[in-house]
Each structure stands twice: as C-alpha cells, then as structure tokens.
Write a structure and sequence with these properties.
The chain has two domains: 133 residues, Rossmann fold (3-Layer(aba) Sandwich), CATH 3.40.50; 72 residues. 46% of the residues lie in helices and 14% in strands. It is elongated, with a radius of gyration of 18 Å. It binds magnesium ion (MG).
Length: 218
Amino acid sequence: MINKTKDTMAIIDFDNTLFETRRFWREHLFPSYEKIGIPRKDIESAFIKSTTVKVDYFIPELFIQELYSLKSCQHNKQVLEKIFNDKVYSPSVKKYYFPDAIRLINGIKKNSRAVLLSYGDKKFKNKFFKHCGINKHFGSQNIFVTTDKKIEVLNKLPKSSKYIIINDNYSETKNMVFWLQKANADTMAYLLDPNLDIKNESDRIVICQSIKEVCQKI
Ligand SMILES: [Mg+2]
C-alpha cells in the first residue's frame, strides 16, 4: 500500500488500460463496414495500414482513405466517414471501458492527482475523449495527448513529489519508472497484463490481471 498524499500524481494510460481499444474497433466499428459489403480481412488490413504506413498511431482520415482504396469498397468517402463518425463519436462507446476503470479514477482522485497520458493523434484523441466521457472524469487540464514518446513529455506534466503509473505497455512503463525515479525514488507502476505473460524484472512494477486488482493493490 502506497502512502498517498495530495501531491501524488497518477499517470494513467488510456488504450487497453482503461479502455478496451482493440476490442472496440473490432466489435463496435468493423461490423458496420462489413454490413456494407467490405470483407473483414480488408477492413483489418486497411486499419493496420492506417496505423503503420505514415505514423505508428491511428489517424481516422488515413483509415477512411485506405478503406476507400480497397477494390472491395463500392462506396464513396462520405458514406465511409458517416459510418465512422456515427459509431466512434457516440456515447455508446462507453461500454468498452474495462470493468472498474471509472471506479479506479474516482478512487485515485480522492487523495491524488489523476492525469491521463495518451499516445496518439491529438485531433482524433481529443474528439474521442469528449464523446467517450473520459474528459469529465479527468478534467481537460489533466489530459495530455502526445505523438512523442511518453518519457519525452513527462517533464511537461505538472510537477509532483510522488508518482504512480498505470499502463499496459511493459517497456514504456519501465522507461517511465526509470525516468520518474530520478525525481522520486518511491515511484511505483501497476501494469495491466490480463494473461500474465510478461516477465517482470522490476520491483517497482506490480503486475495486475485486472483494474480491480489495481484498485486493491494501489
Ligand atoms: Mg495502452
């Protein structure tokens, strides 16, 4: 149990930490494109291309462009865009929060500052965060979207004397812990690893199978 004070800051990741991003795209969005006749494997390849070819994060405009370029796509861009906007910028996406995600944020906020640090396209993420309701849980002043490596933006965050990291990416977490430990030796991280297949080498990183477990251990 960490001795938390008001000047403890929790730096929380969004994708696949609070929100089931992988499942969200595939269960929530992709079926709508299948319904208009685009085969699943083509949607998948358009999606992968749109997150790997130019940059390594998702940009909606690239995805629409990739879908539109598919031989199997018989629709104009407006149709593809409308489907995207209707499905993605919708309160219905709230069902893809992991169980206990909102409880975790509210629990942290009782005695610490909660900051959301998310990697990705600023324009897309900021719009998505409004619609999925995460904005109101953190407050927009506590939300940071970056296309740089997270360790490169840590010094842009408000200063704090204690840090907690909650994330699902092991190497990113390890780097963040290494960096933040210079400011505070008590820095701790809680790493979401539902399948428990990460080989942990750090006594500063606690592996958790679920957010419920993070809530218990933090
Ligand atoms: Mg993540």
